[in-house]
Amino acid sequence: MEGIMLESTETGTDIAKVAKKWVEEHPDAVSKWTKGVEDVNGVGIELVSTPWDSERASANVVAEVLRSKGFEVTITPVDVAIVFKAIAEGDGDATLAAWMPVTHKEFYDKYTDQFEDLGENLKGAKIGLAVPKYMDIDSIEDLKPAE
Description:
The protein has 147 residues and is mostly helical. It is built from six helices and two strands; from the N terminus they run H-H-H-E-H-E-H-H. The chain has helices at residues 2-11, 15-25, 27-33, 53-68, 80-89, 105-111; strands at 44-49, 72-77. The chain has a two-stranded parallel sheet. Strand 1, helix 4 and strand 2 (72-77) form a beta-alpha-beta unit. The radius of gyration is 18 Å and the shape is globular. The relative contact order is 0.13. The mean pLDDT is 89.
């Protein structure tokens, strides 16, 4: 996903186009992902996603892979609260934008019995904090409330 985001930023090319190129250039990965998946003819799938570049990259890669199997894919960008609600209520078919179960814990807990959790899609992903170099801190504990 990082490579897709970087190429999009550096070249000014839309993330969807870069994702499509990535899928075309990585047939072995696509073949592994789609092993045993039958081709279809025009079955519609709606992916709901947040409009964050990382999620736009992953959603567009998955959309291209699904299209290669004959699916008609729509990606709908929404707020994270709507991602979970849309999946729970059947207004969307899938998402790759759910940071479960910690970051989106509130939404996960609210809707957990209304969706199927298929597991992680980004092994080893971590969330961290970044601060400007001029800040003299080494950890979150060093942050002080504003006075």
